## 1
Amino acid sequence: MSTARRVFQLMAKPSGAICNLDCDYCFFLSKEQLYPGSPFRMDDEVLSRYVEQLLAAHPDQEEVTFAFQGGEPTLMGVDFFARCLQLQREHRRPGQTILNTIQTNATLVDDTWARFLADNDFLVGVSIDGPREMHDAYRRDKGGKATFDRVIAGLDRLREAGVEWNALTTVNAANADHPLEVYSFLTEELGAQYLQFIPIVERVTEEMLPLAEQQGWGSRNHRSVLYTQTGTAVTSRSVSPQQYGRFLIDVFEHWVRNDIGDVYVSMFDTTLAHFVGYENVGLCVHARTCGQALALEHNGDVYSCDHYVEPDYKIGNLADGRSLLEIVDSAPQQAFGQAKLTTLPKYCRECDVRFACNGGCPKDRFLTTPDGEPGLHYLCQGYQAFFRHVDKPMRLMTSFLRQERDAGEIRGWYAARDAKRRPDDPCTCAGPQPWGRCHGAAVPDVPPPPSDPRSS
């Protein structure tokens, strides 16, 4: 038995791939094909194993996170999660604290759900893609109806109950060209303080592309085909590399001047951590290696990753006689995690932003490098643009942190330089609009810092 004690995450899917929505870009809906005839409900036996084994796998850690996703996990009902809390109390070890998180589309959140989540300190992730038109472009229900109003109604109940929540927003063809509109909607209209932007990259084979374009992954007919990580074509719903890089840069330019310290964007936090020198923190897609973010299906099956819930990446089951830690530390999972590093093409290994990017998620490494080597990430051009754009401010924030100063002091650094700009100067985001009609239009009144040669 392995004696390793490694930090890992296990995303539980108690309702499997079953959801009350049929979002066009949702790759996970097709996973129901893995379990024909299943009721897609985690029973008490599997739930008990999950709770007991996850707590047992973290005896030396102060906090253990139970993360629930789907499909749509609220389909399980409040009683399921109340039972989970009971089991946590029974199996919690001395010194352990427990954090429960749930990712939801919020359409089923009523007053009962909101009270339960608030009373039990759940951290709730709400999936919302921006203002109404952008959100409803791809996020519809099984009857093809828009979902925006129902999401907002559920979110309103969560906020009224005092639930801590964050926003998970996909960046796709419908909203990618409107970064500041999306960001302002989330932060100013909804009051979100924690944001995660997930690029939509629908990777398909050339043969499957017409079907994917016509119906979307939410179509029941389309879900008869299991979605796997194959092919080199992308759908028209996908964000382009250029769009994703521009989206991140535009949001960063606004955030760093206006909201740093008040709003937290996972991509920016992860990037700063890498500049500071941490390799495997924050978003797993930019970690040096992977294999620490596993997925648990409703029947106890454990998969290497949420994006690899496929037969070839099933590495065990909670009832197969091994502990969860043994499954996590198994040879196939270790090989899966290390492959992210060892399969990097030379172009990536020699890249100046490799330390921050680390080649991106392996699921989207389906392009070839300029010299013809396979394994280049689809979003490489966008990643390079973003990481190079933020190089100087990230290094400055790193120096602040190493001096035990607040990284937010960088707002003063920007203010000193912005004060010298004219409205018709090129914008700092390198976009087509001049400074005065782009990011300069919303520059806050921040006093510049004292002169510091280290900041020049």
## 2
Amino acid sequence: MTVDATKDDHSFPAARTDFFDTDIAARLGMNGQPPVRILLLYGSLRERSYSRLLVEEAARLLQTFGAETRIFDPRGLPHADDVDVKNHPKVKELLELSLWSEGHVWCSPERHGTITGLIKTQIDHLPLVSGGIRPTQGRTLAVMQVSGGSQSFNSVNQLRQLGRWMRMFTIPNQSSVAKAFEEFEENGRMKPSSYYDRLVDVMEELVKFTLLLRGRADYLVDRYSERVKEDRLLDPATDLVTDPTSQAITDHSRKEAQTSNQ
């Protein structure tokens, strides 16, 4: 895992940090919440991989917005149909990280008008169901792409399709960086631009949605058809538990509404 790539530099030369929202949980009435846990995947093994550089910049921002991050290093990951892949250490690592996470960031280069095989392989190793556990269902997802040429949205659109198939909550905003080779300094940091501003928007939004779904994701993806198949009735004694976090959000919203009406 490339978990140390962002630890030494939390300066943001491309941003106006005085405009950062670093108190997202508090603004949602969720003070005291632990950091949201975000897994980031990138789609190129090149030495100067722009999808990796964009993911590293995203991780720095997420940490600043109150998240805990892990970046998966896909080097050495086998093909999804290789023999006995479930026992491969890289596959186990990826699955464990997904189970640890509450949200994902997927970033792919656009290659031949589509996502790369590497990013697809990582997603293919994440089963919909594994021993009754669902390593992606109910998690939030932010999608990003880098292009060597002009602006395109092919990869982010395909990543959205994959996210829907994996039963994830893909946030509305997204990032697509055109001519990525022009957008990064030699040291790997991103230059100031509208692309960078959009990246900040996306990461801020991901933290917000992940916090809002915390403790509710399992209920939101619960399906009638599955309850019928499992002969599992809803039980008011267990399924209508009052969530103190939900009450805090309700109280905060009511206070905001009263203030706006004054």
